[in-house]
Batch of 2 targets.
Target 1
Amino acid sequence: MSNPQPLEEEAYDMSGARVALTLCVTKAREGSEADLVALERMFQQLGFESTMKKDPTAQQFQEELEKFQQAIDARKDFVSCAFVVLMAHGLEGHLEGEDEQMVNLENLFTVLNNKNCEALRAKPKVYIVQACRGEHRDPGERVGGDNIAMITQDSDQTIPTYTDTLHVYSTVEGYLSYRHDKEGSYFIQTLVDVFTKTKGPILELLTEVTRRMAEAELVQEGETRKVNPEIQSTLRKRLYLQ
């Protein structure tokens, strides 16, 4: 039996500019201001050029992201990484704009893919989505007592259209997401705390976010609820923010 091969420790080059766009509906979303403050602090600490837009309509979600893409492609300097934070009421696959119209998340995600944003081709693109994905509530379950793909080197060959992307949802498909009226959403506050105080590749940091959220007991309408984020990754390398 042959010995397993060690993984190559290749990481994304983070020496260039880091850019972030936050689109947040605050209307009828008490506590969202606390999330914006926390995110601004995080982006400042991690060296991101951060833009925040409050109360976009459904159409403005799309327009602001397209403006963000155009500004990135127009830059003369090297861009290392982009973060997009989307915060609103939502249903699975959709966000609700300030005008109560819905925007398709998939349409937002395609704006920065390897086909549509040349400056971010093969660069990490991180989407953080703080929104409900349905009406289900999780009371939790009692508990008793990874395959890793090899990382390949960059070359002059082609890459898939949808690589180098990380989608981080505040909850799993079909379930509610929770937000405190004053302290903000548990997901955003936990994520900011971990990202600003812990070092390591981003997927390890997100595992810690998931662990903390899974252990927490949230009370809604007098009932104990459980919630955990969902992480979907096509990253090809390790992504370090610190």
Target 2
Amino acid sequence: MKRKSFLTAAIATAVMMTTLVPAAFAETGTPSVAPAAQKSVDAQTAASNALQAQAAKYGFKSDLSDLQYVSTVNTLGGTVVRYQQTVNGAELFTHQVTVTLDNAGQALLIASDYVPNLTAQPVSKKIGENAAEQKALAALNATDAPSAMNSRVFGYIFENGQAVPAYKVVTHSGESEVESFVHAENGKVLKKRDLHQHVNGTGKVFNPNPVRTQGNATGLTDNNNKDSTALTNQLKSVTLQGLDGSGYLKGQYVNITSKVNTYSSTNTFNYTRSSGSFEDVMAYYHIDTVQRYIQSLGFLNINNRAISVKPNGTTQDNSWYSPSTKDLTFGTGGVDDAEDAGIIAHEYGHSIQDNQVPGFGATEEGGAMGEGFGDFMGATYEDALVPNTAFKALIGEWDATSYSSSTPPTLRRLDTSKKYPTNMDGEVHDDGEIWSHGEYDMAQAFGRDVATKIILQSHFSLTPNSGFKDGVAAIKAADQALYGGSHLSQITSIWAARGL
């Protein structure tokens, strides 16, 4: 979210916030040197051994009998093994545990949403799956018949200190896809959320924005989307990769769904900013470019999908990512947000985190981490395109011309003096400046590519409830996994300067 957060938590806050403690870390949070595990030990066995060793600390059962293995994901820095907490053999929805292992099988980190000593609410008589589906549809006021695509799964949700028996029902009605949790005995809908992925073309865009490419904001004004010689001079010709050949801006990683429904039979999209199609091209090009950059770092499983984007989807001077619909919306208040690549990359950052950790940002600190990471993505993307020191640690200079009095104008800075916890004020964008500063300092110290790899790797180890200290621990573990801890001393100093 550019300003006031519309990034509402998709999952209710869990009962407890578990601090991430690396299994092989000393009390200071610094990775300790441990003997390399035998490569003959498989990842699931190594993870299980780590969980049993830490059972007392996290409240796990000694035999791990209520932790069900879910998946093993191979990453650049090793392996992440994921488990699902169960109650009476059924899933406790959204409560998971991850174990991060390095390439030698050494446990680096345990992240846990596990609820210990959990009591299950008794149920005398369950309603059936079909009845649960009908209750979910009724709560949505859906008039169509149940779809063959609908699904129903029995499990538990954590409510008021208990495991409450419920069906998770995913319904498809018209163009909507909704996840509902229906009480398994009385049929009450406890909660619900909306869930709604080649050829090359050419186009013209601001790359990243006209203030950066001109070198200043002189003569650059929005003027209600009118063209001007100064702004037209800043247009750059680019290749639009991965289009599906339909003539619309639909491709491997982006699906533009705009009111103007931009179309070209030759896949040529050259517009000036007075056209509503200009923002369509901007959004397609810059999101596609950021996704390809992530893949160039070696990550092929981070938001690797065609994300739906509404470039002029609201008249507000704001933009947002929706964790329920999984799409992006950009506003037209002031300078159209989708005319500034830094703003586009920021919002895409929210989608990245939600893809790596579904439901991320369930706490205020998590929300601040999301805003800070978005600013990091936007600022480093702009820096890579126009490495002008006059714009160091700034984001959204063109967008900010409609509200900023600074020179150059900026949405936010990534080099404030804020520290944790002294300068926390409970507003995610304000507090996010603490997080973005630390991440941006990493990019200055190690270069954009190394810093981004460490940060993206660290996200895999987080949970929906993670906060600042959890994030720093995960960053340290990621550096250990990717680079053998070679940046650990600098990472420690960078985050200590931010009070973490």
